[in-house]
Design brief:
Helix content is 62%, strand content 5%. By secondary structure, the chain is mostly helical.
Length: 146
Amino acid sequence: MQTAILRFEKLLLENGTYFPTITQNILEERKPGKWSKKEILGHLTDSALHNLVRFTEINYLEKPYQHRPYNQIDLVNLNQYQEMDIQELTQLWFLLNKQIVKLMKSVDEKVLDYKIVLSDESVIDLKFLMTDYIEHLEHHINQIKS
């Protein structure tokens, strides 16, 4: 888990200062049926918010933890990330993820084994969900940087 956390911290440090340097035209350009780079960052913000709740709730709610999906498209639209100032959006994304790093660093090893039931009834554990979150983050950061 330590290696994943170090990778996570590196992603935050590198990109927290990079995103605001991207020109507005590039950030807001939309291709048919796709999010803009700014909306992808908004999606990552929504993901951070929901996963922070999941990573926290699993500690005190009934086990196995029931994973609740969220409507990603509606959230990006309702939160109006396309119109948001890039400095503010980056700061929101960064601070939520900084809190997730703090939580990941403090999680007890036995908690990483707590079971999570997904909406399709498959079962994963918290360690998988946390490492998958970092991979998801990296995937979308690469989209923003491309």
